[in-house]
Amino acid sequence: MSGTACTKEASPKASASARIAIDRPTALADEPIRIRVTGLHPGERVTVASRAVDYKGLRWSAWAQFTADANGSVALARQRPVAGTFRHTDGMGLFWSMRPQKGEADESWFSSDTPAHKPSYKVRIAVRSGNREIAHRTTTRQWRATGVGHQ
Questions:
Q1: Residues with Cβ < 8 Å from 133, sequence gap 6 or more?
Q2: For the chain, how many structural domains are there in total?
Q3: Which residue segment(s) compose the domain that 70 sits in?
Q4: Is 3 inside a domain boundary?
Q5: What percent of the chain has pLDDT over 70?
Q6: Is residue 73 one of the residues assigned to a domain?
Q7: H helix or E strand, kind and range, residue 22
Q8: Dihedral, CA atoms, 33, 23, 131, 122, nearest 10 degrees?
Q9: Which residue has the higher pLDDT, 47 or 103?
Q10: CATH number for the domain harbouring residue 48
């Protein structure tokens, strides 16, 4: 009697750490930036999330799951998320798909404050593998270019 063994392909081991590269850590709020995660295991599934706080103190967030490529990296501008708050290849998806922690996204909008009072705001980018955060980095989004005044 012969049998066939069924084997389940093992999931890649979770990385202990990763690196987040942002091509322009400080950029205008309407300018795209490139985010790349490196140092992962090939085929590893990770969640990349963004978080910011608006002028009312309300937390906004977005997330997307990606599968690391053969080099152990995820390039948000080139890879389609497996799941998340956005579903298409979009390097800025973690920004435009942010939703408020409370209330409906359709009934509110993100604002850090007027440019005269707060010329920039911070967005925290984090990477999770399994149940662990393995990297985080903050990017600054500016409402106006350095040296531009407001009257």
A1: 126, 127
A2: 1
A3: 19-142
A4: no
A5: 77
A6: yes
A7: strand 19-22
A8: -60
A9: 47
A10: 2.60.40.2240
